[in-house]
Prior knowledge:
- The chain is mainly alpha-helical.
- The protein has a domain at 35-104: Helix Hairpins (Orthogonal Bundle), CATH 1.10.287.
- It has three helices and no strands.
- α1 (2-46) packs across α2 (50-61), α1 runs antiparallel to α3 (74-106) and α2 (50-61) crosses α3.
Amino acid sequence: MRRLIRRAILSRFLHALGHYLHVVWPVLFLILALQLALGSLVAWIERWSFGDGMYFTFVTGLTIGYGDLVPHQPMSRFLAILVGLLGTVFTGLIAAVAVRALQTATDDPTSKGR
């Protein structure tokens, strides 16, 4: 019985997650595109390879920050801050969507009139 309940919740969660990701997809795509553009610009300013620029963008945007690539130019440092801020918003939006999907999946279907 518990197994059936877990499967039903998982199914509702995945359905709700897909729905909410579909709703916020344009915003997620815009944030990701901005991050990639800023990372490319940082790579160009710092004379890094494109791959290093993308690596820097994701490491900074995900707030990992290994420190193996460090921007030295004032403009690229400012852009790195923007990449970090956009990454925080991106991560927060993904977390919010997942939480909302979990709430939807675990709502009691018999109490819709609350």
